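Progress note, sequence design subtask.
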């Protein structure tokens, strides 16, 4: 079911849906393995798709941790809304990650510990990618981290423009294999 949704959405929206299948369990585990769930007060997810990373985060976060997921695609948003309707401190938004600051203001959140991203920066319009990364850099302070994955290292120069330190790990057990990038200012 989820794979069919991904294929349909990829065909309809190839610039904003970067894959034909959901991320693997191995990639999902790698994406969240360095999050300090004990101390995190706010986690944001960009582009949750059908919720592979979302589910991992919801299962590991404290009840008091605020978790905001921003999904641009209306079909994926509907799936997520139904799938996670009973979650505590979970805010699902149907909008672009470019507008995260508006929502942080709306919900009186002044600190984000982690931003986890499933966004396809290689296929997003360049101006949109730059706006998202600019907002991300502005929001992240101190020990906060931006964790994303990409299928190629094609956009590393773009990420380096916004983040001073980037650690990368390769995940072979994903279709296609992916790189997890942990970025900080």
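Output:
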């Amino acid at each position: 079911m989820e794979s069919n949704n991904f294929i349909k959405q990829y065909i309809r929206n190839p610039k904003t849906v970067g894959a034909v299948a959901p991320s693997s369990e191995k990639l999902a585990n790698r994406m969240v393995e360095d999050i300090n769930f004990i101390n995190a007060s706010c986690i944001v997810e960009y582009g949750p798709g059908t919720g592979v990373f979302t589910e991992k985060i919801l299962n590991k976060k404290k009840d008091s941790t605020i978790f905001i997921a921003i999904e641009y695609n209306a079909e994926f948003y509907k799936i997520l809304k139904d799938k996670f309707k009973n979650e505590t401190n979970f805010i699902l938004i149907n909008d672009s990650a470019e507008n995260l600051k508006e929502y942080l203001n709306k919900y009186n959140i002044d600190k984000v510990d982690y931003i986890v991203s499933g966004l396809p920066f290689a296929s997003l319009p360049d101006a949109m990618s730059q706006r998202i990364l600019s907002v991300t850099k502005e929001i992240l302070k101190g020990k906060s981290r931006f964790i994303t994955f990409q299928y190629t290292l094609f956009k590393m120069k773009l990420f380096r423009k916004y983040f001073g330190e980037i650690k990368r790990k390769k995940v072979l057990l994903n279709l296609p294999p992916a790189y997890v990038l942990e970025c900080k200012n």
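The radius of gyration is 15 Å. Work on this subtask will continue into the next period as scheduled.
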